[in-house]
Specification:
Blueprint (H helix, E strand, L loop, with lengths): L8 E4 L9 E5 L6 H12 L3 E7 L8 E3 L2 E3 L2 E7 L2 E7 L5 H15 L5 E9 L9 E5 L2 H9 L3 E2 L8 H12 L4 E8 L6 H15 L3
Parallel strand pairs: 2-7, 2-8, 8-11, 9-10
Antiparallel strand pairs: 1-3, 3-6, 4-5, 6-7, 9-11
Helix pairs in contact: 1-5, 2-4
Length: 208
């Protein structure tokens, strides 16, 4: 368990009884790739809201959808397929990264078996947009990435922000996790890269 000094709290709204649940993170980042991809997955799989994450460290805003106010950071889940998604309408500020990661690992980890995080990386050419590489925390997930046709990231590197914090906490707490790094347009939201990571990486890797 992560040391609990977090202001973030998970407020559960429903029970989830499925086994072997996969958490897919879709928090805002470069090209909004993770946000677009996970929003699409949530809608297409018909996932229901499972809970919210609230924190004094989050921006003081009121999010809304179709004329109704909602919490900015939400968790959706379903049992067939056994998928849980983490979404946010706001960028997670640096001072809230640690508390959000602690909340996920303290309050939610008992409900999922493995986690898949998404991270955008700037494409250096138009042809590179949509290319996906993977990083895993366990031998089993490394094998799963390879069998899904996902190239493992070459050389050494660092993953920052909230995705990096979540991945590091999963690694230290022996929670199987992988991050899919997708090359995307560095200047504007990139739905093409989001589609590529769904079709070429998430669908082969996760049982949808």
């Amino acid at each position: 368990m992560v040391t609990q000094n977090s202001s973030a709290e998970f407020e559960k709204k429903s029970e989830l009884t499925a086994d072997s649940v996969t958490l897919i993170e879709g928090l805002p980042g470069l090209g909004l790739v993770a946000s677009i991809a996970v929003d699409q997955i949530t809608k297409q799989l018909g996932l229901e809201q499972h809970g919210t994450i609230v924190s004094d460290d989050f921006p003081p805003v009121a999010a809304y959808d179709e004329g109704r106010v909602r919490d900015a950071v939400r968790v959706y889940a379903g049992e067939d397929p056994a998928v849980m998604t983490l979404q946010s309408d706001v960028t997670i500020p640096p001072n809230a990264v640690e508390s959000l990661s602690e909340c996920v690992l303290n309050d939610m980890a008992q409900e999922f078996e493995q986690a898949v995080f998404l991270a955008g990386a700037p494409a250096e050419s138009e042809e590179q947009i949509g290319e996906v590489t993977g990083v895993a925390t366990t031998d089993e997930l490394e094998t799963a990435l390879t069998e899904a046709g996902i190239t493992l990231a070459d050389g050494a590197g660092v993953i920052g922000g909230v995705t990096g914090a979540l991945l590091a906490d999963c690694y230290h707490l022996d929670v199987p996790a992988a991050v899919l790094i997708v090359r995307s347009n560095p200047y504007i939201p990139d739905p093409g890269a989001a589609r590529a990571v769904i079709e070429n990486a998430l669908e082969p890797l996760v049982d949808f």
